Amino acid sequence: MAVANSETLYLAEPADARIVEPLDMMTLIYQRRSGITHLVGEPVPQMLEAMGSDAVSVAMLASRLAASFELGGQDDAVALITERLEELAELGLVERSSNA
Predict the structure, then answer these.
(1) 2: pLDDT strictly greater than 60
(2) Phi, psi of 40 (to 5 degrees)
(3) What pTM does this model have?
(4) Rounded Cα–Cα distance for residues 85 and 11 (Å)
(5) Which of 12, 44, 53, 54 is the most exposed place for a label (fewest CB within 10 A)?
(6) Per the omega criterion (within 30 degrees of 0), is the bond before 22 cis?
């Protein structure tokens, strides 16, 4: 497993490569490429939407999300977002790459 750092960029799978279906408090994300359906909760759908088609750093994504959501302190927000992005990378919903 790769280790995220401040140079790590994340790129979400294209929106047309997945079907997103809200289901009460959870969201189903069907990944066309793998044929796998993921059941996720907040803030995952909001993160994928905020990423759009851009490769983003954790700080960039935190800034985008802060425009719509109360994220608390910057350190807490960065830690939470990093953790979620790494989980999404393991699921194949985002790719991680180095900015170096």
Answers:
(1) no
(2) -130, 160
(3) 0.84
(4) 10
(5) 53
(6) no
3-class SS string, the chain? CCCCCCCEEEEECCHHHEEEEEECCEEEEEECCCCEEEEECCCHHHHHHHHCCCEECHHHHHHHHHCCCCCCCHHHHHHHHHHHHHHHHHHCCEEEEECC
At residue 47, φ and ψ (nearest 5 deg) are: -65, -45
The Cα 5–Cα 57 span in angstroms is: 9
Encoded amino acid at 5, one letter: N
End-to-end CA distance of the chain: 18
Domains contained in the chain, CATH given: 8-98 (3.90.930)
- The number of residues making up the chain comes to 100
